[in-house]
Write a structure and sequence with these properties.
The chain is α/β, with parallel strands linked by helices. The chain is built from 18 helices and 18 strands. The strands form 4 sheets. It has a 7-stranded mixed β-sheet. The protein has a 4-stranded parallel β-sheet with strand order 2-1-3-4, with helices on both faces. Helix 9 (171-179) links the parallel strand 7 and strand 8 (184-186). It comes from Lysinibacillus xylanilyticus.
């Protein structure tokens, strides 16, 4: 059974708890806040009591983004999608009979609104929109986000008689507008979106457990093979192994071999490992070459460890040298030398050549190729690529059009979204992309 911590307002919790029945093997616990920024005060306790964190939206998630990344916390947020927007607009026009020109709307990306209107064939000349797309593109710091801006946006329009209703994607804004007596609605939180988001988060968590269980083999050899008292050195290695909950081979000859799991090695930071290594250097008056290998099998991990140890011989630092080869046969290191990361099989040359040819950033091209590989080169829409790359729909469409112009992508066909609206164009990579 997994434990999921919900970080969000009481309003959000009450809206989604009816969907918990879809996950009988999950225990849900609530960490409530009244303002998104308070998520920063909740994340440590929530992470310590759960397997997965689910944030009410992108704003509280990005307040905690740096800590999530630094501590490798399993976390997700309930995304805003076009289904939520479509249901919300349908509810307003059908149940409250209010024209869209009389509605003020805040949402993560205004492109979502125009896309829904376009696909539904609706013309809307006058509309009041305010988005916070910069949060996703990280053009400014999340601390620049001010809830009061969005409250004032709706309030000023309503008091000026330009609108009759506020539609908000922010819980705190909805609560504040209600307190001010301003007619408002919160975006419909669809069951489909919640179930899909949490299912993906649970699958990612299970995959991380599989990754953490990968075998790690550490090979240690003194720089000049000059350890006099092998038995004493072995005792010191065994002390280090206690830190990693690992086991050491009892061989009295170099290299000395440590067996552990990837999860255990990840939990012990490199700085601590380095400090233990420095103690060995001082005690035995020598530097060390260390090769770490990760693999899905013992044989693979041992082979990678041996290869990584071999690569340490290429460096002649006046300090110990550590290299690592991961399960994808990528070489990382020397670890203590400015965090270098060197792939053994480097395919980036193609990316650089394409980037030069079509005048596009290599970073974006690498993300696109990674997206295509992960999805087994199935047909994809501009919206899917935009979500993966954290770009606006329009930016993704510009990138796609440029790749089509240079014959790296082709228009594959169309798909019908949600059984309504206009079909979406879908694309596939050509053989020129060398996937």
């Amino acid at each position: 059974m997994q434990t999921v911590a919900i970080i969000g307002s009481l309003f959000f919790w009450n809206n989604i708890k009816a969907n918990f029945i879809e996950f009988p093997q999950v225990q849900f616990i609530h960490f409530p806040y009244t303002a998104p920024k308070q998520s920063m005060d909740l994340i440590d306790e929530a992470a310590s009591q759960s397997d997965i964190l689910l944030f009410a939206g992108s704003i509280p998630y990005y307040y905690c983004f740096e800590k999530i990344q630094a501590q490798q916390i399993q976390a997700a947020y309930l995304p805003f999608d076009e289904l939520m927007l479509s249901l919300s607009l349908l509810s307003i026009t059908h149940n409250q009979n209010i024209e869209l020109s009389k509605v003020s709307i805040d949402l993560p990306k205004e492109d979502s609104f125009y896309q829904v209107m376009k696909e539904a064939g609706i013309q809307c000349a006058s509309i009041h929109l305010k988005d916070y797309s910069w949060v996703y593109e990280q053009q400014r710091k999340i601390d620049d986000f001010q809830i009061d801006e969005y409250i004032s946006f709706h309030k000023d329009l309503y008091e000026a008689g330009k609108t009759r209703l506020a539609l908000t994607s922010l819980h705190a804004v909805f609560v504040a507008l209600k307190q001010l007596g301003i007619p408002s609605s919160y975006m419909v939180e669809s069951k489909h979106t919640f179930v899909t988001t949490l299912s993906k988060a649970i699958n990612a968590y299970k995959f991380s457990l599989l990754s953490a269980s990968q075998i790690t083999v550490v090979s240690i050899r003194s720089r000049e093979n000059n350890i006099v008292n092998n038995h004493l050195f072995l005792e010191n290695i065994e002390e280090i192994c206690k830190t990693f909950n690992a086991r050491v081979s009892q061989s009295q000859s170099e290299p000395y071999i440590i067996y552990a799991t990837r999860g255990v090695m990840n939990k012990t930071n490199i700085a601590h490992f380095n400090s233990l290594l420095q103690q060995l250097e001082k005690r035995f008056e020598t530097f060390f070459n260390i090769g770490i290998g990760i693999g899905y099998s013992l044989q693979e991990a041992e082979m990678h460890s041996s290869q990584a140890l071999f690569f340490t011989n290429k460096y002649n630092f006046q300090e110990s040298t550590l290299c690592l080869i991961d399960e994808e046969s990528r070489l990382h290191g020397p670890i203590f030398e400015n965090g270098k990361n060197i792939p053994l099989f480097n395919n980036d040359k193609q990316i650089l050549e394409i980037a030069e040819e079509i005048k596009m950033s290599a970073k974006n091209l690498k993300l696109i190729k990674q997206f295509i590989v992960i999805h087994n080169n199935r047909a994809f829409s501009a919206a899917e690529l935009a979500d993966y790359m954290d770009l606006s729909r329009r930016s993704a469409e510009r990138i796609i059009n440029r790749l089509i112009d240079h014959h790296f992508l082709i228009l594959s066909g169309e798909e019908q979204p949600y059984n309504q609206g206009r079909p979406r164009k879908v694309y596939k990579a050509t053989t020129q992309f060398n996937i």
